[in-house]
Specification:
Helices cover 43% and strands 7% of the residues. It is mainly α.
């Protein structure tokens, strides 16, 4: 992975942890698709574009008392999500 891509991914994780919607919207592609794992929830679906990204993250932050992510290396698709060690609200 290029240094530029690595820097962008780390900036996205940092913005996610700060809940910085402005920076997230500047990094995320307008045609992004976030797909929830089928079967993980009866309402699992795909979220499309920036509005979908915001809806997904708002929903996640309402459900989880505390969510942070960290980038430990990247070589393919990146996942952001609530770590299992944080209990639901």
């Amino acid at each position: 992975m290029s240094e530029s891509m690595d820097s962008t991914i780390r900036a996205l994780y940092d913005a996610f942890n700060r809940r910085d919607w402005t920076v997230i919207s500047e990094i995320v592609s307008p045609d992004v698709v976030i797909e929830e794992t089928p079967g993980a929830s009866p309402e699992a679906r795909a979220y499309r574009g920036w509005d979908g990204t915001r809806a997904y993250l708002d929903g996640m932050f309402k459900f989880w008392a505390q969510v942070t992510s960290r980038c430990v290396g990247s070589s393919g698709p990146t996942s952001l999500g609530p770590p299992s060690r944080f209990p639901p609200r």
